[in-house]
Amino acid sequence: MQNINEIQRFSFDNTNVRGERVLLNEAYQQIIRRKDYPKALENLLGEFVSAIALLRDIVKIDGVLSLQCKGNGPLKTLMTECDEKQNLRGIAQWDEEQSFPESISLKELLDGGYLVITITPRNGRRYQGIVEIVGDTLAECLEQYFYQSEQLPSRVWLAANGAQAGGLFLQRLPAEQAKEGDEDAWDRFTHLASTVKQEELLGLETNELLHRLYHEEQVRMYDPKAMQFACSCSRQRTLDAVGSMGAIEIREILAEQGTIQVDCQFCAEHYEFNAQDLAAWLGDEGQLH
Ligand SMILES: [Zn+2]
């Protein structure tokens, strides 16, 4: 398949059901290429980036949305982010002493963990939602989240295989937004979507996938939006983070190493700062030389 990194919204005419489909290859591969991830985590990162892409398109805010899980099992933390320009990034940290099979579930990987969804608008207050890991899969956890936060029935299907990552989302909007009544629409559409195979979710373009599932329905498709891997780190932001360690610690590292070096965990960009760069944080006592 050619390079496809996009999300596309769709709806069904004369019903109150809407949907989203995301399909990523290059953007996903760039994220998992940063570290030597075990296969299970390559797949899970793919599910997470697909999920954050879907969430980002549903929660329409001007800002950054992040999806993170934390636990006590072999997976310590996994975090993905997406902003309003569809820039994606993600990272996972795990116990490298432990080995686990490719088929391990999210629940087993986290062993009593939870999922945090953080909405950070460019202007305005940050909002966090927490979901306990009750189901075996990320898709089940997200369905739980949508039900808790929006009280709207929603279904999510996610898949990833180290090359492609994809997701499908269906949601039934409140009754007042329903057009002509089609009482069975929700059951019919979710039942059909449940028949989707992993190779279809990852291998078919959106129009092909929707045709495969819903060729007897009136599907309205909206313009796809391109997504890409991009990191939001910058020299200034990294400098601010180093500065926040405080003068004592900064002085210690500078005395030992001459400069302070930082590698971005998401994109491997290398930053280096000397005493002059950090002068604002070191104050009058910053004169090392
Ligand atoms: Zn970066």
TrEMBL record:
GO terms for biological process: protein refolding. Its main location: cytoplasm. The keyword Disulfide bond applies. It holds the Pfam family HSP33. It comes from the Bacteria. One of its GO terms (cellular component) is cytoplasm. Under oxidizing conditions two disulfide bonds are formed involving the reactive cysteines. Under reducing conditions zinc is bound to the reactive cysteines and the protein is inactive. Disulfide bonds join C231-C233, C264-C267. Keywords: Chaperone, Cytoplasm, Disulfide bond, Redox-active center, Zinc. Redox regulated molecular chaperone. Protects both thermally unfolding and oxidatively damaged proteins from irreversible aggregation. Plays an important role in the bacterial defense system toward oxidative stress. This is 33 kDa chaperonin. It comes from Maribrevibacterium harenarium. The lineage of its organism: Bacteria, Pseudomonadati, Pseudomonadota, Gammaproteobacteria, Oceanospirillales.
